[in-house]
Amino acid sequence: MAEQENSWNKLWSLIRSPTLREMVKRLRVLWALGHASALMGWDLETYMPKKGIRDRSVASEEISALMHSIATAPWLRELLSKAEKELNAYNEYEKGLYRVVSRMVRIETSLPEELVRREARITSKATKVWEEAKKQEDFARFKPYLEEIVEIQREKAERLGYEEHPYDALLDLYEEGLRSRDVDQVFDKLVPETKRVLAAIERRGYYPRWHPLEGVGYEEAKARETVRRILDYLDYPWDRARVDVSAHPFTIDMGVNDVRITVRYEGVDFKRFVYSTMHEYGHALYELQQDPRLSYTPLIGGVSLGVHESQSRFWENIVGRSPWYMLVLKKIVDDTLGVTRGLSAEELYRYVNTVRPSPIRVDADEVTYNLHIYLRYKLEKQLIEGSLRVDELPEAWDSLMEQLLGIRPRSPSEGVLQDIHWAHGSIGYFPTYTLGNTVAAMIWRSLGGPDSQQLRGPDVEALKKWLGERIHRWGRVHPPKELLCRSLGGEYSADALVEYLEWKYLRLPSQLPDVFKA
Questions:
Q1: Is 461 a catalytic site residue?
Q2: HEC profile for 134-162?
Q3: DSSP type of residue 217
Q4: What is the pTM of this model?
Q5: Half-sphere exposure of 437 (CA within 13 A, CB side)
Q6: Which entry of 87, 183, 264, 420 is 20 to 30 Å from 280 by CA?
Q7: Is residue 72 a contact partner of residue 106, using CB atoms and an 8 Å limit?
Q8: Residue 477 carries which DSSP code?
Q9: Which tens digit of pLDDT belongs to each residue from 473-512?
Q10: Contacts of 434 (CB under 8 A, 6+ apart)
């Protein structure tokens, strides 16, 4: 009881309004149910026995329905109505709380309980079906599940409402305030500029299309030790976090003191698990560095998926694939896997920065990655507006990939079945990956871009502190666009990302002999 009272006292230093205090207390059960759902989701993709899926599906459905009933309860709408009259007197935390809860209620009251139950039921089953379909290269097995998921997403869009395009309603679920026109503005510059930079990289030849290390195998036990050493270097708090194995790497949090990441070990090409680890670490750090006073409230958690993705892409690419990180990585890999002992740090840098069109998104380099997202964005919009049927999706995917990247998938696992997101019902999610890349580049620019001293070394503690102060600690207090304007000086734009790609891939190579000599 004393510990609970202490947590309230810390929160009440931010939330003064009696109306909002009552709201927070009554919504604590909603946080608890979210905590339980997150733990169940982690277990589903890590250790749960295959035959446990039926019971888990029922449990997920019931919890989702219970959370929906709380979010649509008359008492909550009454408290919001009362809070609205006090809004002008609120501080930034109180205004943030009102905004977040109002948005949640608007979304949940737009969706009937049966639709919520139906989505929870089908996605729980679809996750395991997708895994089997991918292994067996059998899209037909997954197709009926995806058809129902798309049908549910269309109904959700109509019930949520939109002004311009039904896809906008789904984008907003993952990135508050985001519209198709915002995404189009980013891609209208980024797609042609990516092709221009890619062509220049291929002409100059410094960054290889392929490296011999990509064909070198490794032992999983040694790979696990490599991951541990990387996370130790990044000061991963093992008493508040853990790492496990799953088919598709992810990060999930149960609170600021329980954050979990997963990686996968494929037995070859060690950079895959190295950068999966760096990527998920960025997500985990965001959750770990939030203001603990926000715990158990609707303000805890990442403000949006785009901002969340910026953290993972910053650590994965801008820190982890920088020339200054190579001495750190080389020492770790020399000691664990041993496959880099005969290589220079510069050669390791060339290996982790190969550039070539690839069919697999999660293996794509940072130059071509956003073309993969553009492909998914276009197809999702067409699915939701009804101009593309699910049974047409494999051919549409393969043709568009050939148009964008010049390659055609050899199998469904290289094409339409490669991502788990649609099995989760996450349509409208993919564009946040590119938004994350744009924001990561905005962070790079804000830190000084090519002249940043914090990125040379790199100074991990200084970077963590900078990100914690600018982004992490705020949780969901400010909407994403406002947070970016406050912290980075602008909203989503492709400008900084194009600047970063041009610097790293077209200008930096001439400076690398001096970097590695130093």
A1: no
A2: HHHCCHHHHHHHHHHHHHHHHHHHHHHCC
A3: B
A4: 0.92
A5: 27
A6: 183
A7: no
A8: S
A9: 999 999 999 999 999 999 899 999 999 999 999 999 999 9
A10: 183, 186, 187, 190, 370, 373, 374, 377
